[in-house]
Specification:
Blueprint lengths: L2 H19 L1 H47 L6 H12 L3 H11 L3 H11 L5 H9 L4 H7 L4 H24 L29 H20 L24
Length: about 240
């Protein structure tokens, strides 16, 4: 028998023996591997759930800020106009939707974002009327809370810019004409303060005053700007402060 053939035979025997010897180990290894795969899948799902929760928490924070900035009737016209422009929806439609769904501007923003993923505002309104929260509706639709949080932040930045530009004009109390016939007095619902904390309202006040001070410091007409001591920033309607 040639050396090559003998070598092949011995190698074949070695592999056969090794396979028999470690057969129980192989089986145990397969079990261990299966357990490892299950644990890995569990970790992935846990991480996804954590990321989802974190995204929702960020979205809630930004959405509360939108609602808080719109809480005061003096600031609401600017907020409503900015939201309408951001969503590319006529402001009159937003007012009607708010009255139909009893959603503040923050929650209405979320509803519009959810409506882009296949459902309708009417469908969302039906579930809200059935007792679900906007967050529960979103979770049922597997909402991308991170994206919604990022969009809400962009909207908050635009609202702040609108406040600044308003004060920069030097006419903070001037009544601006509106071709759409918007009436801030009619744009009020019982749910406007829903979910807002004192911290949220204080944050809205800080934003309002920060824009005012920044505009005044950059050349806005001091003669036409109100005295800061007499200025009333956005706050909850009826708030004793």
């Amino acid at each position: 028998m040639s050396i090559k053939k003998r070598a092949r035979r011995e190698i074949a025997r070695a592999f056969t023996f090794e396979a028999v010897r470690v057969d129980s180990t192989v089986v145990q290894g397969k079990k261990t591997m299966a357990l490892g795969v299950c644990l890995a899948i569990s970790v992935v799902f846990a991480l996804q759930a954590a990321a989802h929760t974190e995204g929702q928490q960020k979205a809630e924070k930004e959405v509360r800020q939108i609602a808080a900035l719109a809480l005061d009737p003096t600031a609401r016209p600017l907020v409503s106009q900015t939201v309408a422009e951001f969503l590319k929806v006529p402001r009159a439609d937003l007012v009607r939707e708010r009255r139909a769904t009893n959603l503040n501007y923050g929650f209405l923003f979320v509803a519009h974002r959810l409506a882009t993923s296949g459902t309708t505002l009417a469908g969302i309104a039906t579930r809200l009327h059935a007792g679900k929260t906007i967050w529960e509706v979103g979770n049922e639709q597997h909402a991308d809370w991170r994206q919604i949080a990022a969009d809400a932040k962009k909207l908050n930045d635009r609202i702040e810019a609108a406040f600044y530009n308003f004060f920069k004009d030097g006419r903070p109390y001037a009544v601006r004409g509106s071709s759409d016939g918007y009436d801030a007095a009619k744009d009020s619902i019982s749910a406007d303060p829903e979910g807002l904390t004192k911290q949220d309202i204080a944050g809205a006040q800080d934003t309002y005053l920060r824009c005012f001070r920044r505009a005044r410091g950059e050349g806005a007409s001091h003669a036409e700007m109100p005295d800061e001591r007499d200025h009333t920033p956005p706050q909850a309607e009826g708030d004793p402060r």
